[in-house]
Target: Twitching motility protein PilT
Amino acid sequence: MTLLDTGSALAISPFLQALVQLRGSDLHLKAGSPPRVRIDGRLRALQSPALTPVDTELMLEEILRADLREQFARTNEADFAYSPDGGGRFRVNAFRQRGTVAMVLRRVSVSAIALRDLGVPAVLEQLSLEPRGLLLVTGPTGSGKTTTLAGMIDHINSTRESHIVTIEDPIEVMHSDKLSMINQREVRLDTQDFATALRAAMRQDPDVILVGEMRDEETVKAALSASETGHFVMSTLHTIDAAETISRIIDFFPPHEQKQIRLALAGALRGIVCQRLVPRADGQGRCVVMEICVNTGRIAEAISDPEKTHHITDLIKEGGFYAMQTFDQHLVALVRDGVVTLEDAQHAASNPHDLLVELRRLGLVA
Model:
């Protein structure tokens, strides 16, 4: 990997420059180990001496906002965004491990990337222009949920005259007003928490509300309420597919409330976009694989009836007319087009055996 100027080892900027130059996604800093950069999913060590506890302490002091220093001293945790003078933007999680400071810095886009440039299915443009309801983008950490949502917000911003309110922790992608007006609020900097900001947003005449993450019952309830009262609400969850997403939302609530929540969700939901990143066959980074669920009458029935919820994946598989697709259906198309290899597709598939059977049926593999 790139050799850094060890004379600047106490400053964080050379490591951030290496992250950008190597087109990595995350920078890991830890005392007792050389810095590491995640490139296309792999964690690679930089050619640099191991950091000392003093190094990591000074690096955090260099970038930590003054208003978060007391919090970090008290809780040993801090989440914030950092924009160095030289350009770029990074989402930072700072924490203590074995008594020393450690950090993970994720490189994020300074501005949104258009949906068409992201190479995502065209149905995402349609879903982003829903006049009301709830849209969820889900997937594991690092699967590109923020990038997808930023692209959808940018599509609204470029297409409709709307008021968009975002509630994020922290703000990652900066949006400029185009046809829409966008107010971006950061938890702990501009507002106390997601639920408080969501309640306040209802008095801010919004058309679209972006909630960075659904973390608890109160936030889910407020988001559902907003989507039922004529607003378009977008949010994320750390779930692997549409069926698990439905179950996770319902499980936020005690049993005696779950029937009501099922009915509310069945009525408010507009779609679920689940995503994973898979290495490209040409070695040029990774591509996004998506499961897309559009809330049709049959999907709504499966949400409201707990006896039918397990049919959601099958309904998505049969929902091509509505632009729905499962992960494995998308992977079949990517293997067919030579975008991903069979090995990587099987590794990412929900059901590797069924994926292989389908590829053989189509004559794409022996």
In short: The domain at 115-325 is CATH 3.40.50.300 (Rossmann fold).
